[in-house]
Amino acid sequence: MTNLYLVFNREEWANLGHSIPLHLSNEQFGKLKNINSGLSINEITEIYLPLLYLLNYFIKSNNYHHKIIGNFLGNKIKKIPYIIGISGGVAVGKSTIANLLQVLLKQWYTKNNVELITTDSFLYPNKILIKKGLMEKKGFPQSYDVCRLIKFLSDLKSGVEVISPIYSHIIYDIVPKKNKIIKQPDILIIEGLNLLQSTPKYSFGSQIFISDFINCSIYVDAVEALLKNWYISRFLKFRENAFTYSNSYFHNYINISKKETIKIAKNFWQKINGLNLKENILPTKRRANIILTKTKDHSINLVSLRK
């Protein structure tokens, strides 16, 4: 992989951001801690500030590119959002990183609209997955309404107001009759398992892929043993939350012992999430512009930048 990427350890990457001032109020840092309770100032300054600095270069370059095209055509091109895609396996922390980046980008670009969506919102509703016999393949490429997601991204790039469904991890399903309206954002962060797929089963029409709409792709990586442990921990957390939310999909597990719940989670990993990782997600890692490699405490210890 080193032939395709420039690889930086934590210290080397941190040195790229030493000249960047950190302007975070206690309130703003509190918001970040709410997203990730284990987050430290060091993680922000050593990992995320250099990443933001790089993204800023990418965004400026993209804006300049559109300005040049506008000058060539002799007219002003409608605002086109810059799309950042975050991919990786189940429980690797994609949502956490996406939320952190949204908060930090909003702080960096105070006048810009930074939106965030997840590809989970474009999963087929459970009733359709059941009808198609895909409930045990939830999260696999075929469990998504890819046509709808690609139309969403295409409309977004065209400057059209778009509507996204809403997915709930509590009910483990699309929320009926609820949507999120997105109006011409300057930056859109989209996170999901299969963003970088390039196989026919994850395309639309004449081989159009989700990755075709992404300006910068980030793959969050970790060894499978860590992903499995993080998934089991998350499964147990959802089970604990089921005591609070009576409508939780995980309510069925509250009367099962912790030991038995762990056994069930391990089985789900082996039959669904681990299999999806090997077959569909991990093979796309080398298509990412940036790879963030995590260690056991969820901190990032390697950053790989595609040449």
From TrEMBL:
It catalyses: (R)-pantothenate + ATP = (R)-4'-phosphopantothenate + ADP + H(+). One of its GO terms (biological process) is coenzyme A biosynthetic process. Keywords: ATP-binding, Coenzyme A biosynthesis, Cytoplasm, Kinase, Nucleotide-binding, Transferase. Transmembrane segments: none annotated. One of its GO terms (molecular function) is ATP binding. It is an enzyme of class 2 (transferase). It comes from the Bacteria. Its main location: cytoplasm. Residues 83-237 form the Phosphoribulokinase/uridine kinase domain. Belongs to the prokaryotic pantothenate kinase family. This is Pantothenate kinase. The gene is coaA.
